[in-house]
Amino acid sequence: MADVLSRARAAFLGVAVGDALGATTEYLMPEEIRRLHGVHDRIVGGGWLHLAPGQVTDDTEMSLCIARAVIDAGGWDLPGIADRFARWMKGKPVDLGATCRRGIRDYLLKGQLETPPNEWDAGNGAAMRMVPVALCTLGDEERMARLAVAQARITHNHPLSDAACAGLGRMVQRAILGASRAQLRAAAEELCARTPAFRFEPYRGEASGYVGDTVRTVFHHFFGTGNFRDCLVATVNQGGDADTTGAIAGMIAGAHYGRKGIPERWLRRLDRRVRDEVEAAAGRLVALSPAAGND
Amino acid sequence: MKKIEAIIKPFKLDEVKESLNDIGVQGMTVSEVKGFGRQKGHTELYRGAEYVVDFLPKIKLEIIVPDDLVAQVVEVVEKSARTGRIGDGKIFVTNVEEVIRIRTGERGLDAI
Amino acid sequence: MKKIEAIIKPFKLDEVKESLNDIGVQGMTVSEVKGFGRQKGHTELYRGAEYVVDFLPKIKLEIIVPDDLVAQVVEVVEKSARTGRIGDGKIFVTNVEEVIRIRTGERGLDAI
Amino acid sequence: MKKIEAIIKPFKLDEVKESLNDIGVQGMTVSEVKGFGRQKGHTELYRGAEYVVDFLPKIKLEIIVPDDLVAQVVEVVEKSARTGRIGDGKIFVTNVEEVIRIRTGERGLDAI
Ligand SMILES: Nc1ncnc2c1ncn2[C@@H]1O[C@H](COP(=O)(O)OP(=O)(O)O)[C@@H](O)[C@H]1O
Ligand SMILES: Nc1ncnc2c1ncn2[C@@H]1O[C@H](COP(=O)(O)OP(=O)(O)O)[C@@H](O)[C@H]1O
Ligand SMILES: Nc1ncnc2c1ncn2[C@@H]1O[C@H](COP(=O)(O)OP(=O)(O)O)[C@@H](O)[C@H]1O
Ligand SMILES: [Mg+2]
Ligand SMILES: [Mg+2]
C-alpha cells in the first residue's frame, strides 16, 4: 500500500509539475520554443500568463477544487464540486477556458450540473482534472468511469471528452496499482481501438487543446520515453496546449514512475502551498477509495 | 444573443466589472465616449472666463450575452452603476444575429 | 425604440446638436472615430515626404429615440450635417429592444 | 442591410482593410476600444510590484453591408484578423433597418 500511496501522490504532483512547467511554452510552436529556450526543462514561470516560477494554472486548481469537495464531503459530491468551481471562478483565477467558464456560470446562475451536448465541447478541460477522480475511486474502474463523465459534464458534454476522461482515469489507476509498462501500453491500445481519434502512431505533432491532439501527444511522449523527466520535457517542448498536455503526461508518468521519478529540482520550485496541499490531498483521496477498504 | 450596451460614469467601471465577474461574466469591450443629457458638464476657466463644458466623459460597455443571461446582466449593471444622481447613464439591449470567435471560428453561443 | 447612429464631419457636431435641441432632443452619446470611404484623407509631411493619411476623423452620434420620432430626427441630422461634399457621412437606424435609465430603473419610453 | 462589427487586434487593421478592399469593400468606421477577456494585458511595475494590466487595446470596425455580402465579409475579416492566439477578437452581426447617405439623401442599398 505504501507504493500505491507514493504513486498516487506522484500522479497528483505530476499534474502540478506538468502544469507549471508547460505553462511557459503554452501556445508556442516547437521552433519558437527552441529559439526562446533551447530545450525548455526548468520551472521558470513566464509564458502568456506572466506566471511566477512554480505557479500553477487552471489544470491544477480545478483538480484541487474536486479534491477539496470530495475530501470535505467524505465521498463523491457533485454539487460540492460545482460549488467549488464557482467559488474559484469568482476569485479571478489566472486562467479559465471559455468552455469551462460557460459551464461553471450556468451552474452558478441556473444550478445546471450537466451542460447540453455540444460539438464544440471536445476540448481537454474536463480530462485535465481527472487525477482526484482516479484517486478517490481507486480499485473500482466502473465507478471511476461513471464519476469521470459526471464531473466532465459540468462543463464538457462530448463523446471524445467522455472517452478521454474515462480512458485516462483508467490508465492512471492501473499505473498506481502497479501495472507494467507493457500493460499500460495494452490499455492505451485498447482505448485507441475504441476511440480512433486517440491513435498516436504515426504522431503528427498536433498538440492543441482539442482532446484528440492532447491524448495523442501524451501517449506519444509517455510511451516514447523511459522516465518522468524525459516524458515531461518532450511533452512541453511540443508546445501547443503545453500546460495541459504537461499536466496529463505528469499524471500518467507520476502514477507509473512514482515519487522518486519526479526531479527534486522541479518539486522544489513548485509553489510551496500547492505542493503541500496536493501531497496531502492525494493521501486523503486514496484513503476514501475502495482500494483502501471503503465501498 | 443580445448586445447589452451601457453608458456609465467612468469611476463606476471597476465596480461594474467586479459585479459582472461575480456572475461569471468577464468578456467585454469598453470605450470612452462623451455624454450629453440632463447632467451639466463641469465649468472651465478659459481666457479668464468661466464657461460650462456641455458634455461629460462617460464609459460605454458592450457585452454580448446569451438571451437567458440578459435580465441578470442588466440588473447587475444597473445596480452597480447607480449613484442615484443625474447622469448615471443608460442601458440599451439590441438583438445580435450572429457572433463569431475570430481565433477558432466558433459561432453562436460558443463564441462568447 | 430605435437607435439612430450618425457618422458626421467633426465640425458639424455643434450645428447638429443645436438642430436636435430645437426639436427637443437633448440626450445623446458621442464618440471620436476614424472614417474610411471615398473621401480621401489629408496629406501629411513626414520625414520630408508628403503622404496621404487614408482615414479621416469623424464624430459618431448615438441617439435613442421613440419610434415616432425617428423620421424627424433622421431628417434633422441629415439636413444639419450635410455640406454636399464627399465624406458628409451616414445615418444608420437599428432596433432597440429595451432601454433602462440606470439612476431610476425606469424602462422603455420613460428611460429616454 | 446588416452591420458587421469586429473587435480585432490593432496591428491587424491594415491587413483586414486590404482584404476588404480586395473584395470591393472600402467604406468603414473604425474606433479605438479596450478589450477585456482571457488575453492578459502587459505587465506594469507599481510600487515595486509587478502586476498585469487587465485590458488590451483593440480596434473596433463597423461595416454596413447589403445582406448578400454578409457571409463573404465575415469570412474575409475572420481570416485576415486571425493569428490563432488568444485575444484575436469577435465579430457581431446585427440588423440595420435604414441607412441614409447624408450628402445626397440616398437611402437603403444606394447609401452604402
Ligand atoms: N437619448 C439618448 N441616446 C443616447 N444616449 C443618451 C440619451 N440620453 C442620455 N444619454 C446618455 O446618458 C447619459 C446620462 O443622461 P442624463 O440625461 O445626464 O441623466 P440620467 O440618465 O440620469 O437621466 C448622457 O450623458 C448620455 O451619455
Ligand atoms: N459601409 C460603411 N460602413 C460603415 N461606415 C461607413 C461605410 N461607408 C462609409 N462609412 C463612413 O461614412 C464616412 C463617409 O463616407 P464617404 O464614402 O467618404 O462619403 P459619402 O458618405 O459622402 O459618400 C466614412 O468616412 C465612414 O466613416
Ligand atoms: N462577451 C463579450 N462581449 C463583447 N466583447 C467581448 C466579449 N468577450 C470578449 N470580447 C472582446 O473580444 C476580445 C478577445 O477576447 P478574449 O477572451 O481575450 O479572446 P478570444 O476571443 O481569442 O477567446 C476581448 O478583448 C474583448 O474586446
Ligand atoms: Mg491551464
Ligand atoms: Mg492549457
Structure in words:
The complex is a heterotetramer, with 1 copy of chain A (295 residues) and 3 copies of chain B (112 residues). Chain A is mostly helical. Helix content of chain A is 61%, strand content 0%. Chain A is built from 14 helices and no strands. Chain A has helices spanning 2-22, 30-37, 58-73, 78-90, 98-110, 131-136, 141-152, 159-176, 181-194, 211-223, 228-236, 242-257, 264-269, 272-287. Chain A is globular and about 45 Å long. The model of chain A has no long low-confidence stretch (mean pLDDT 97). With 112 residues, chain B is of the alpha+beta class. In chain B, 19% of the residues lie in helices and 40% in strands. Chain B is built from 2 helices and 7 strands. Chain B has helices at 13-21, 70-81; strands spanning 2-8, 28-36, 43-46, 49-52, 56-65, 89-95, 98-101. In chain B, the strands form 2 sheets. Chain B has a 4-stranded antiparallel sheet, with helices on one face. A two-stranded antiparallel ribbon of chain B has the order 3-4. In chain B, a hairpin with a 2-residue loop joins strand 3 and strand 4 (49-52). Chain B is elongated and about 60 Å long. The N and C termini of chain B lie close together (9 Å). In chain B, 38% of the residues are buried. Classes of the chains: A mainly alpha (295), B alpha+beta (112). Chains in contact: A-B, A-D, B-C, B-D, C-D. The interface between B and C is medium-sized, with 33 and 22 residues. Strand 7 of chain B pairs antiparallel with strand 6 of chain D, so a sheet runs across the interface. One adenosine-5'-diphosphate (ADP) sits between chains D (7, 35-39, 56, 58, 86-90) and B (27-29, 62-64, 101, 103, 112). The site of one magnesium ion (MG) has 6 residues of chain A, from helix 3 and helix 12.
